[in-house]
Here is the input.
Amino acid sequence: MMKAAMESTGSELAEGLARSGLRPTSQRSAVYDVLASSHDHPSAEEVFLRSRKVLRTISLATVYNCLETLVDCGLVRAVHRDRLPTRYCANRSEHAHFHAESGEVTDVPLSPEAVKYITALLPEGFAADSFELSYRGHAPRKTGSNI
Amino acid sequence: MMKAAMESTGSELAEGLARSGLRPTSQRSAVYDVLASSHDHPSAEEVFLRSRKVLRTISLATVYNCLETLVDCGLVRAVHRDRLPTRYCANRSEHAHFHAESGEVTDVPLSPEAVKYITALLPEGFAADSFELSYRGHAPRKTGSNI
DNA sequence: CTAGGTGCAAAAGGTTTGCGGTTAA
DNA sequence: TTAACCGCAAACCTTTTGCACCTAG
Here is the structure.
């Protein structure tokens, strides 16, 4: 196999972008790859630093632009916490976020039933396009998990 | 009865502040009163404009300081949505927020069972101090409700 | 060719902070 | 008296934007 195969297959990215009539540029690809291979919900700044290892000339503004594009295409999720820098994740499955006091952010998977339950909490007449659920608290003792 | 009675009784505010060893100044009182009598989740700027009707000399920075103080004391909740200006509410009962596309924010009450259910979604080992749930979507046709 | 993208630098905009002066216990 | 608090203005910091150049279809 080619080394290039280490990057995302590109199909998911290319297809997602194409759906909006956008091109999979090397910058978008680099940004997406960083997120797809990260489990720590990096900030734009952090994505910038990591993507620069691959694309040495990419600028922070371009990273912001790419992130916005990817979010708009539904390929990436923006994770907000108070006024702290926005963080990003490429986990597109339904999930909530647990914000530990340390700043660490962990995905909390949501079952289809949970999603249904939460959506059903809305009063008559309200129709949710989406919801965001985030917890704040103490994370369990650090596991020896990867990344 | 004195006209002053129109302001919040002050007891809730004074007690909440006292718990943190803080004084119920006229500025904090004005800010709190604005929120306690608003159901539309005003931004700091908006709180500033409204509180200035009562305290003509209050400054925006002081409003920000007061809001932060009140949030820290648990008397007021900060409501975030993406990177838009933070909004505030004095509704201390357990509730979620519905963000309509219009920018309108509506409280969504949460029953004790709902709170329990949502808290129970966390994986083993995680302990949540609190959670925040927000919906995005279309609000029902405007009711003739009061502010 | 030419519409869409990138990179840079500068602007924007909400929020915070430093500081001198004021106020309440 | 004195520690807490306010108002002002300037600083901060993340994010956005304008613009000239570049590049893929």
